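idk why but the lab printer keeps eating my pages so im just putting this in chat instead. protein + S-adenosylmethionine:
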Amino acid sequence: MKLTLVGLPLGNIEDISLRAIRTLREAKTVICEDTRMFYKLWQKLVNDGHLQTSFSGRLMVVNDFNEAEKVAWLIDQITLAGEAILVSDAGMPLISDPGYRIVKEILAREGTVEVIPGPTAAMTALSVSGLSADKVLFLGFLSKKTGKRNENWKLVKEADGITVILYEAPVRVQKTLEEIQAGFGPETPVVIARELTKEYEQIIRGKISDVLANLKPIKGEVVILFRR
Ligand code: SAM
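predcted complex ->
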């Protein structure tokens, strides 16, 4: 039994790798997050001349809401098919995206997990941020529950000299920045990386008090980074 994790672009179709295109072309069984997003990507690749025909394999769906209940069934399907690929809507599978339970189960059964790397928003943002990449703490999406959020802030407080990377919904950026300022001070260097690799890509860098003072309503996808 083999599962191949395929990294996809964050937004710019030209970031897809040759290996990812070949693997998509040859795939007979695909597990994706959202069939509409998968077909949209496939069509873009057809339009750009990388794929010739429409997808004729089997498509299965896994998302954050159904992964736990579907994992046993998915493992059966992968076993029957012999191999499958797993893709997210964008970026790397398992990175704040579904797939962990499937990978864990395949490894427990001594199956093979292979990866075709692609971009992740976290690392793409880190490299362009101007913040040190020597020691990094990636927290993904913070919980909305105060208790769990505070556990994360405690973790950050204990670790000095690190760059912290967060995924955040645009409507919550201001609140999260305010929490960072309250916890780590107005001089904290912060970066907001918005719409990476897309038409309206924007990188906002500065000390957090200035960034907050000049913050306009944020649209699109956002990574927040700060140094402490
Ligand atoms: N698997 C993806 C990866 O490898 O980065 C992450 C998926 S997670 C569900 C989506 C979050 O990733 C967004 O809310 C945002 O925080 C971040 N993200 C994804 N694409 C982005 C982009 N183009 N620019 C900025 N942030 C992005």
